[in-house]
Amino acid sequence: MASALESSTAPRLGGKSAFVLFVVVLLAFVVETQLTQYLQTTLGYKQSYFIFYLVHSCFSFSLPIHLVYLLSTTEYELRPLLSGLRFAVMRQLSATPEHHESIHNRKKFIVKNTFLIGAIAIFYNLPGLLWFAAVPLAPVTDVTAIWNASAFFTYVLSVKMLGMKWEVLRLLAVCLATLGVVTVVYGGTTAPTPGADSISTSSVYKPSPFVGDMLTLAAALTYAFYQVIYKKYIALPTDPELTADSIHYRRLSSGDNSAEEEIPTPVLLKDEMVYPPPFGLHPNLVTTSIGICTLLVLWIPIPILHYYHLEEFRLPASRDVLMAIAGIAASGVLFNAGFMVRPLRALHLIS
Known about the structure:
Shape: globular
Radius of gyration: 22 Å
Structural class: mainly alpha
Order of helices and strands: EHHHHHHHHHHHEHHH
Low-confidence stretches: 1-11, 96-100, 190-205, 243-267, 343-351
Number of helices: 14
Helix content: 55-70%
């Protein structure tokens, strides 16, 4: 059996691959935004929470799709891929994977992992929910401009939480981004005067640009915080940017002094384990965990919202609505699967 050292299998992304990923994520975001506004305004299906629930539940498919891709385009087998992913997660959350052999430590690992998944699901889903609520209220240009300012908010939070140093050019960029957000928010607060065409749809769509802009701003800030938390606590130390920027990485403590010890690099057999996991596999595991958590837990508010008439639940009544929801879900899965990889890239570029 062939053996491979950790360094020889380290995941890499650059050049054309990075550019293609960026273009795909950008197009997916545009499609998701346009379809969401079309669904809730033109088609009149204003079920923001239910749409959010469906789309984020579909994130559960991220890991299976990635595994199918790897199995069909590479020589990897399923069991070594899953074993390597399991090893990576256990190594991330503890001092050494061997610490989990006892029942006590195994339970401790499960509790810690469950808590971590729940926490990242909250920080990941909250900006998504705010975004879905904002899209039918504000123009697409406002939503896009404010949301994409999250990269600059990420830099501000990175300075505070990751110990990065302020730099003049980057500080200037942050100030310009903030000024741009303020301009967008206060420059688009006046809704257009209703005309003949808008009177017929006023009962379905009553835009409130300021509210939509503020929701998007809250979503951008929350997502920026999530990206920093992701890099600091969740991303694997073998991720490309973290190997070059390990000063900001901190493994979760297991509660004893051995957590600070270096783990020797294992020699891993190809037929037994693929480690480090192929590029993007671990982020898509996180995305899938968020999707499963959303599916199993976040259905609970739906009947509550319906009971209090905050959002009366109704199933899609036409094929156009179904197709729009399917398109939003597909583009949402693509965008978020790519964006779970991109935070590392974005943070690396500004760090």
